[in-house]
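pipeline: protein-struct stage 2 | run 1193 | Transcriptional regulator LuxR
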Amino acid sequence: MGDGSVLVILDLAPLVRHGVVRREQRLAEGLNAVELPTIEEQRARPLVMVVDDSITMRKVTGRVLERHEYEVATAKDGVDALEKLHERVPDLMLLDIEMPRMDGYELAAHMKGDPRLRDVPIIMITSRTGEKHRQRAFDLGVDRYLGKPYQESELLAQIGEVLEQHAEAQRAREPDHG
């Protein structure tokens, strides 16, 4: 403060996310399963994982998503994302192509080959806007492809459309109990 006193400032979003992760871990361990809601009930907001080696892109995109009621997880490259995907499977992934250790193409290919991850919709956001890059992404099973810099309204529209299409596809796969 101006008078030299110290004021603690809490960034609540990571604290809230950490609390949700701890509850999921206890559920996985079978502890307090009766008292705690299921993981599906906890996820009132869709979880979007942002995978980009640029900390600026992760922070800016994360803030945009959080302002629009999405839960956000981030990873700095494909290897980091795979480690985090062992803990939680997102509802959607925003994925850069050019990253160290494992690029976006490699991660997308790995996800599409994994039964646990193959249905996660992927939107690539990249500075590589050439047709050959776009076609390679679609051949791997990527749902949408956006160039950088993206328009916030366009990103949010694409996310909304992809999540709705994914939800419709899941409903169509469910057996009819009516």
